[in-house]
Protein 1
Amino acid sequence: MPTIAPSLIRDLVEAAASVAAQVELSALLRSTVQTGMDLTGAKHGALGVLGEHGALMDFVHVGLDPGVARQIGHLPRATGLLGTITRTDTAVRIDDIGDHEDSVGFPDGHPDMTSFIGVPVRVGERVFGNLYLTDKAGGFTEDDEVIVEFLAVTAGTAISTLRMQERLRRAALHEDRERIARDLHDSIIQDLFAVGLGLQASMAKVDNDPTAVHQQLDTSIDKLDETIASLRRYIFDLRPPVWARPSLPSELARLLEELAAPHRVAVGLDFDCPPDIPETPVADDLFAVIKESVSNALRHGEPSTVDVRVVCEGEVVRASISDDGTGFDTDQESEGLGLDNMAERVERTLGSLFIDSVPGRGTVVHVAFPLQPSQSK
Ligand SMILES: Nc1ncnc2c1ncn2[C@@H]1O[C@H](COP(=O)(O)OP(=O)(O)OP(=O)(O)O)[C@@H](O)[C@H]1O
Ligand SMILES: [Mg+2]
């Protein structure tokens, strides 16, 4: 084991910190090369990034005049000595590149290089690339080899951290997208649907009952204004729209009346919970699931009646939404978002959902939420 002077240990710690501080891959690679040159006194340095089959994908170099690099015009071929490191997965240290048995010489215009050290950079189990340093006056020492190996390990760890962060960032973005789609569907899109259905229903009355049409238009305009206000709040807060809710049962009654208006269907509500229970956010989830289930029944089931029951039992609130419509095959894939969103709300809150539907005989949606949300996000 070579011994390392205390001042060198300090240099190494600083080097590790500066490499690990990089938040972007190309800056990290460049910083690794530069640090290697600073610590060893090498005149040139580079980091070659390998692709799937050991071919060179990228080559970050420091110290070579840009004009000269342009004149050479291509990346190293990763054959010859550079290829040896990839193949053997070990460090190579020599005083003169030309002396190595695998050396194939330099391309036209490439400056002559003599002393050389090269080490693989591993990320996890895989070789990510190789770190090369050349041209140290007097040649690279055993200490230099320790330093460069250390730097390669540091860089490998930092690259793996960067990749992990990138994956987490993407996952968070994806989650946000899903949440936005869900919120828009459950509130805005459903509301617009209801307005559309209301207008459609009033078309039949244009000739015989202009007063009813007039009323319907007024209601629709109000509803559109409300929806625009909701959307505006949502855009500014990026949070689900908050309804001014006097209390859940009266808000549910209003919702059901609105949804039923365009259809000739009786929608009943039986609400059996203590006052002000459930509270938000459970009330929001319950409201959304009932809204979706009732609009599904009305839109898809052609029922003659729809019944909504809500009951609080101990630590849970249960709801059932039943219709006597067409029913449907619950195993059938659908492009809609409604059922998926319901399932997602239930999963997030550790609730339960069961859809009992028989084609030709109607549908009952059973849902339950814990009154004390344990996992709500
Ligand atoms: N009560 C019901 N009666 C009959 N069919 C239903 C009922 N509920 C759901 N379905 C069927 O299940 C499908 C999926 O429902 P889902 O709510 O996921 O999507 P959607 O209503 O078609 O679209 P979205 O909810 O995104 O506006 C519906 O298209 C419909 O065929
Ligand atoms: Mg739906």
Protein 2
Amino acid sequence: MATKIPEAQNRLFKNVFICSKCSSKMKADPQKILKGKIKCRKCQKSQFRVSKKK
Ligand SMILES: [Zn+2]
């Protein structure tokens, strides 16, 4: 078994976004994020950044 499984990593990280205002994590469809349909539960902002490890 390979330790790196791209698909699993995508599931873990690709659909997770961080609110750029309050840094709360949101799991959402990237397409919806891009279209601005998703709002942060806490601050109602629709500015998100992708959660990625460097
Ligand atoms: Zn927020």
